[in-house]
């Protein structure tokens, strides 16, 4: 990561019925993903089928991997 690298945002599609598992009890799973990846992860509302991830490219890639691993494990 360089100091000139721009922050980015990317939408990660997740079916609504899997979103609760990604968020976890009291947000514990998503908070862990934020800490491990360094990215910001959020969803605009309950009906949105996925999460917006923002940060540097490496952080986004890490967050996407964590989210998709959780979905696949369900």
Description:
- The chain is α+β, with helices and mostly antiparallel strands and 74 residues long.
- The protein is 46% helix and 20% strand.
- The protein contains three helices and three strands.
- The chain has helices at residues 16-23, 28-37, 57-72, and strands spanning 8-13, 40-42, 50-55.
- The chain has a three-stranded antiparallel sheet with strand order 1-3-2, covered by helices on one side.
- Strand 2 (40-42) and strand 3 (50-55) form a beta hairpin.
- The longest helix has 16 residues, at 57-72.
List the helices and strands and how they pair.
Elements: E1 8-13, H1 16-23, H2 28-37, E2 40-42, E3 50-55, H3 57-72
Helix pairs in contact: 2-3
> For the report, how would you describe the main beta sheet?
3 strands, antiparallel
Question: Helix share of residues?
Answer: 40-55%
How many β-strand stretches? 3
Q: Report the principal-axis shape.
A: globular
Structure keywords:
74 residues; 20% strand
Give a brief outline of the structure.
The chain is an alpha+beta fold.
């Amino acid at each position: 990561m360089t100091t000139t690298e721009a922050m980015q945002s990317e939408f990660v599609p997740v079916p609504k019925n899997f979103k609760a598992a990604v968020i976890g009890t009291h947000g514990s799973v998503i908070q862990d993903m934020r800490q491990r990846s360094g990215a910001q992860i959020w969803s605009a509302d309950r009906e949105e089928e996925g999460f917006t991830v923002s940060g540097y490219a490496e952080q986004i890639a890490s967050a996407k991997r964590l989210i998709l691993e959780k979905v696949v494990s369900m």
